[in-house]
Amino acid sequence: MKEETIIVNRLEEYPEAARRFTGFLDKGNIFAFYGKMGSGKTTFIKSICEELGVEDSINSPTFAIVNEYEDKEKRTIYHFDFYRIKSVEEVYNMGYEEYIYSDAICFMEWPELIEELLPEGCIKVYINENADGSRTIRVVEEE
């Protein structure tokens, strides 16, 4: 297992954290973002998308469940938010497998709600808010 830790002390540091994170894109295309409500999952994903050159408005797909973006290299990015998912069947009915098994980059918020559906090789990203307001971002590649 490989692990890297990124510390974000202030909001202005997210772009640098995103630059560091993009190095993981050559190691996989499925990323599961874990963290409590308000920990910064959406903010970090937005920073990553901006670093990749996405020009669309980037926001949490809480109600849509999935947003689709295109980066400057014309790669498709799917941004999922499973917070409102009630069952795994709901995820299958939305065509989850077509998204996940495409060559697209997939960023998933609240993956713990669909843990059994995460594909092998999924890179897990844990975001914790520290007492001082900083964030610790742990990126874990399971081998």
Please, could you describe this protein's structure?
This protein is about 20% helix and about 30% strand. It is α/β, with parallel strands linked by helices and about 140 residues long. It has a single domain, classed as P-loop containing nucleotide triphosphate hydrolases (Rossmann fold, 3-Layer(aba) Sandwich), CATH 3.40.50. Strand 6 and strand 7 form a beta hairpin. The chain starts with a strand and ends with a strand. The mean pLDDT is about 95.
Comma- or semicolon-separated keywords:
Rossmann fold, alpha/beta, 143 residues
**Kindly state the mean pLDDT as a whole number?**
93
Radius of gyration: 14 Å
Largest sheet: 7 strands, mixed
Q: Return residue spans where pLDDT drops below 50 for at least 5 consecutive residues.
A: none
Number of self-contained structural domains: 1
The helical percent reads 10-25%
Shape: globular
- Order of strands across the widest beta sheet? 1-7-6-2-5-4-3
What gap, in angstroms, lies between the N and C termini?
Answer: 5 Å
Structural class: alpha/beta
CATH architecture: 3-Layer(aba) Sandwich
Total number of β-strand segments?
Answer: 7
Assembly status: single chain
Short description:
By secondary structure, the protein is α/β, with parallel strands linked by helices.
Protein topology:
Layout: E1 2-8, H1 14-21, E2 30-34, H2 41-51, E3 66-70, E4 76-81, H3 88-93, H4 96-100, E5 105-109, E6 123-129, E7 135-141
Parallel strand pairs: 2-5, 2-6, 4-5
Antiparallel strand pairs: 1-7, 3-4, 6-7
Helix pairs in contact: 1-2
